[in-house]
Amino acid sequence: MNRLLTTFTALAVALAASLASAATPEDVENSFFPYRNWTPEFPGLQPGTVVNQSNVEQFKDVVDFMMYDHIKQGWYEIKVGETTSFDLHPNYVQATRDHLNKTTLGEKVGEINNFVAGRPFPEEPDINDPQAGLKIAWNYKYGYNWGDNAAIAPFYWKFRDLESGKIERTIKFNFHFLNFMHRVNQAPLPSVEPNPGQLFRGIYVIANEPFDIKNTQLLIHRYENDLKRDDAWLYLGFQRRVRRLPAGQITDSFLGSDLMIEDFEGYNGRISDMNWTFKGTQNVLLPFYNHNDMPLSDDHPEKDGYKFIDFGNQGGCFAQVTWQLRKAHVLESDPVDPNHPISKRVHYIDAQTYTIPRTLIYDRKGDFWKSWFICQAHPDHHLAKNKGTGVSIDDCFTMIDMQAKHCTTGQFKGQLDPEMNPQRLFRVQNMRTTGR
Amino acid sequence: MAIIKTNAIRRCVPATVVALVLLTAQADGVQAQEWEDWDVAGFAEAVNHWRDSDGPDGLVKQRNTLQIEWSRSRGPGLSVSGVLRGSYDSVYDFNDDEFGSGAGGSVTIENAGGTEIFGPERVPWGQSIINSPLPGLPGGGGFGFNLNQNPNEGLILLGDDLNTGTGGNFLPGFGGVQLAYPAQPCDDDKRGCIGSYLNKDEGDLKFPEFNDKLDFIRELYVDYEHAFESGRAFNLRVGRQQVIWGRTDLFRVLDVVNPVDYSRHNIYDELEDIRIPMGILNAEYRMGGVGAFDDLNFQGIWNFEPFRPNDLGQGGQPYSILQAGNFFRAFNNCWDNGCTVANFAPAPDGSPALLATDFGPNQIGIRDADVPDDWGDTAIGGRIEGVFKGVGFSLNALSYRAQLPTLSGRNIESDNPFTAEVESQDYPYLIAFDIKFPRLFMMGGSADFYVDPIKSAFRVEVTHTQDEEFANTLDPDLFSESDVMRWVLGWDRPTFIPFLNKTRSFLFSAQVFGQHILDHEKESGPIGPRGMPDFENNYIATLLINGFYKADRIQPRIITAYDTGAKAGVISPQFDWLLTDHWRLIAQGNFKWGEDDQQFDDNRTANPFPPFTCPPPSPGCDFNSPSLGLGGYEPLGRFQQGPIGMAQEENEYQLTIRYQF
After folding, report:
1. pLDDT at A12
2. Which parts of chain A sit beneath pLDDT 70?
């Protein structure tokens, strides 16, 4: 009798928990269109406001502490723009509706059940849900970041001295992304076949300049099984050989920059590599804007007239873009591996797009280390070919190493063009063929 | 030389036709495609090496290079690429007393008799006591050579920088053999310059790319890719190119498609810079994921350009791997013009002494180099490459001509120095050779994988090569064939050393290379070991530690290698400073160490001319018989000394300044 009672009780608790966490169609609408009937506000802050050294105290609650510090030191001024909706592609939203509440977390961190496509957990994260952080992480992993595939070509990285502003190095890359699974928009749907390794995503990078790293290529294979470690290969142009990349190099400086491969896109690792903690939702200033409305750089002219985001202020480390007051989920991740070079990251996840425009990084001792921005541009105000793609386009970045007083900036030409990302680009052999 | 040119042109015809067909077909197929802008990059650099040595030293390299790399694409499927390189090495002007027209001098040769009867302890070149006419020999014998044709000028003693004395530990007091090589460029001194092999004049040495092989066109090829709807692709690359197989650094286990130029900087330059690009038709069918394979590709290659061996560096060049070029030149001079060899002939009175000996032309030495140049000499190979369950792998096969020379004593028509006759016949066990490049068949494979618990990536290569030829003093032809297994295991791990760098790891990369000669032949002779001088099993280990500072613009690194058989090692500390995106400075040292006890049977005690060369005690003096095993450092000790040990006295300081664009 007692055993029967216990069983019923357990079932009742599970059912209650299930009902409590079940997302509704309204949750989906709120998740994807938070600004349809609402605009975040903060006293004194409106489009056109410039947050600078003189008034940053007033706006301390809408910037993170390091951003506050940057402004307080006079390193940067935030020009506030109008908060606008970055609607993701309708197919992605519809996939979320179609598969609502079908996805569940697995027993282990890194396991997920029944995910098909769209945003797996569109409900508003609950601070009392111990797994809320993990769900946000999954929403990010299966987000519509760069859509089904994309290229950043070209992609300029500049290594700068934060204090003198001297540009020490300029690297010209091409980056390519391809989702092998859970595709919602571009053929083939829903998966690229054949895919015997059950890859979820491929990232392919080639350096074109300067000469000493020309033809250096990076290929990352991320598996659908999050518990399986990524495979990564590096083609060294000066050796003309493909080298398998030890995992340690994923968390080391990438080609001398202030970024590690794991920093790409905000976080470029496995869910299971981190412990995830949801710290709450807040309205913060984030670098979202219309690219074509920004003062653009005359550096690196492109044949089609495209111009890159400009950089300036302290050390030339800060993007000359406008920022929007937006709803963001604060997510903390700390590495499972005790030998990881960082102790934690604090991510500000944009609640609408689930991109990561802002991250604070702490070193192994727990001291603040790096300040990480990724600008987001609206696809309808960018290259003509990007219009209507429903992708929040990564458009510029800054990684500031506060300890080394050094930064790396990135200027993107993001192109949502499937022709630029054929499947064969994401094979090891392609590196050998592409390299000389 | 004219034949080579003709053949080169003849063989370039099909490649040119294929390239033109590709260009034309592509042009017809995609009228709308236009040529994209030129992609041009390159560098100009000055490389300076200073050597501290008992041999030729001082400035040994002052090479000024301009390299331009370019490509141009038309649409996604067609591109033309090339690399042009030209260099001028001023060492032949600035240090010509050591490496140019003033190199070398007169030499004296060890004469272990060392008594008044048999001459002084050292005799001048061409003036030994073993010089015809010799009483007791038919017609006075045929020893000696014409000093007017082969004067005691421009010579350097072989291995003199390496060892004190000539060795001879197997029979103390007898010393080893020693030769002298002409050291000047071949237009200044033609002695020892072997036909089409290792025959460079001063201009060739100063301007190594500007030759009849058109080496300034380092690479020039057309790429064509046809992408199928299925995602598969066919790729064809035709033209002069490098085809790189394998996954290891420094060692050439699978990476044997292209020959290499060791004359540039021995084994110490990046293979990328010293591979000799060849005209190759390189076809790939890339299937991508198929069946259980994450990636699967098939490659076929045909090296249609006339065969080229590795450039070992000719006698007198600053870099000559194993000092083989010096030895070849010395020995070719022996054949062509005669030579004085140290401690060779037994004292005529039977006393325990070996005397310097003047051999005449066509008696001992290297007669010729048989450099293959025929359609049948081209290389054909294939590779299956892919990824299986996360493990990268390849299976390789190549039929090709050996790029390293072998010395074949087969069918060498020589003259007996103990007679005045001109016999011109083949004498078993006689140290008279042709340089050969035998056909080989290599099969092998490679793999790389990651081991998470130790955060390390591993690389493996294994090959089996059939019918390689090795020196063998037990064989009447003084060489024999053997299959060879070679393997390399590589390990890479980024590792933090917090007290040296808190934020950036150091790269540790180690490799162990092994070689096993399957049909190895060696035995203890009456005096010392005889047979194959190469070790049956030998191992070389390398370690690279690379640090990164200032956004990787400053990279200190240490590369070290140790040859267990040679008991010799090298350590190269480097400081690589990228001053700007354009300027780069590399300062490095190259310091070696080793023991000088690598000696082997030199075949003095063989019996090629019975009964004259019947070694005591001498049962069966009427028959040819192999060496008794008396040896020294030269010439076969070099095969045990290895490329590190043979250069162990060549410590260098090096400075490179590069402008890249």
Report:
1. 44
2. 1-21
Instruction: Tell me whether residue B87 is in a domain.
Output: yes
pTM reported for the whole predicted model: 0.90
B228 close to A (CB below 8 A): no
pLDDT for the residue A11? 44
Instruction: Enumerate the residues of chain A whose CB falls inside 8 A of the CB of residue B548.
Output: 253, 256
A341–B387 C-beta distance less than 8 A: no
Least CA distance to B551: which residue of chain A? A256
- The β-bridge relationship of strands B278-290 and A78-80 is unpaired
Question: What does the buried/exposed string (b/e) look like for A338-364 if buried means 16 or more CB atoms within 10 Å of the residue's CB?
Answer: eebbbbbbbbbbbbbbbbbbbbbbbbb
Query: What is the Cα–Cα distance from B13 to B9, expressed in whole angstroms?
Result: 6
Q: Which residues of chain B lie closer than 8 angstroms to A427, CB-CB?
A: 286, 288, 295, 297
Q: Which amino acid is at B130?
A: I
Structural domains of chain B, count: 1
Nearest CA in chain A to B236: A433
Q: What is the mean pLDDT of residues B185-213?
A: 95
Nearest-Cα distance to chain A for B72, in Å, is 13
Contact A243, A217 (CB under 8 A): no
Asked if B543 is an interface residue toward chain A (Cβ–Cβ < 8 A), one would say no
Task: Select from B249, B455, B504 the Cβ nearest to the Cβ of A246.
Answer: B455
Residue A205 falls inside a structural domain: no
Domain membership of residue B148 (yes or no) is no
pLDDT of res. A132? 97
Q: Is residue A196 part of a domain?
A: no
Q: How confident is the model at residue B267 (pLDDT cuts 50, 70, 90)?
A: very high
8 Å CB contact of B235 and A433: yes
- In Å, how far is B392's CA from the nearest CA of chain A? 9
DSSP state of B399: E
Q: Would an 8 Å CB–CB cutoff place B655 in contact with chain A?
A: no
pLDDT digits (tens, 9 = 90+) for B80-132: 999 999 999 999 999 999 999 999 999 999 987 556 667 788 999 999 989 88
B88 part of a folded domain: yes
Chain A CB contacts of B69 below 8 Å: 214, 436
Residue B475 lies in a domain: no
CA dihedral for B348, B354, B359, B363, sign (positive or negative): positive
Least confident residue range of B157-166, B208-217, B392-401, B562-571: B157-166
Residue A203: which of A378, A427, A435, A429 has the closest Cα?
Answer: A427
Write down how long chain A is. 436
Min Cα separation B105/chain A (Å):
41
- Scanning B258-297 for CB atoms below 8 A from A yields 270-272, 284, 286, 288-295, 297
Q: Is residue A16 part of a domain?
A: no
Among A355-364, B14-23, B325-334, B511-520, the minimum mean pLDDT is found in: B14-23
In angstroms, rounded to a whole number, what is the distance separating the alpha carbons of residues A140 and A134? 10
Q: Which of A302-316, B267-281, B597-611 has the lowest mean pLDDT?
A: B597-611
CA distance A383 to A417: 11
Q: What is the pLDDT of residues B471-493, one digit of tens each?
A: 999 999 999 999 999 999 999 99
Q: Which range of residues forms the domain containing residue A162?
A: 23-174+261-418
Distance from CA of A337 to the nearest CA of B (A): 11
Which residues have C-beta within 8 Å of that of residue B502, sequence separation ≥ 6? B496
Confidence band for B271, pLDDT divided at 50, 70 and 90: very high
| A to B CB pairs, distance under 8 Å | 153
Task: Count how many domains chain A has.
Answer: 1
Structural domain boundaries enclosing B72 = 2-95+205-277
Residue A275 lies inside a defined structural domain of this protein: yes
pLDDT of B561 > 80? The answer is: yes
Q: Contacts of residue A403 in chain B, CB cutoff 8 Å? A: 503
Q: Identify the CA nearest to B592 among candidates B622, B621, B559.
A: B559
